[in-house]
Amino acid sequence: MIELSTPISEESVARLRVGDTVEISGYILCGRDAVLPRVLKLIDEGRSAELGIDLRGQVIFHTAVSPAGVGPTSSNKLEIESSIEPLSKAGVKVHLGKGKLRPETVAALDRYNAVYAVIPPVTALLGAKTSETRVIAFPELGMEALHLIKIDRYPAIIGAAHGRSIYE
Description:
Layout: E1 2-5, H1 10-15, E2 21-30, H2 36-44, E3 59-61, H3 78-89, E4 94-97, H4 103-111, E5 115-118, H5 123-128, E6 130-137, E7 146-161, E8 164-165
Parallel strand pairs: 1-2, 2-3, 3-4, 4-5
Antiparallel strand pairs: 2-7, 5-7, 6-7, 7-8
Helix pairs in contact: 2-3, 3-4
């Protein structure tokens, strides 16, 4: 088991391989279809500082945050998968979700030394490993707003890294 803490360093990501099991701790971002296009717009406009968090070394979990907990949504939804390359370019190092990514997305992860980790859909387990949640942008989206959460040892499997995918 490889332990990762946020912010994730370039060196830590460079050592990860497809199939590695990791546990991630620290503060991570949570966002999915409704919020990610808004985050990308801020990046495109050079206004990502308005999020109040540095994207470099960050982890983004493809999920909503609700009273029922958190659990991965399909990362291959158009709005989510199309955000992976620009977020990686902006410094995000780990994308957490579920499902197979397109080869073009796997290649983009490699270009920006970022990885995609598959997290099992185990809402109860993740809820017990989440100690803080707060909305940091777009509160009008409710549970689909951009959240910052504090986690302790989230389990995941590296699903795409360095031009390879676990789904090959």
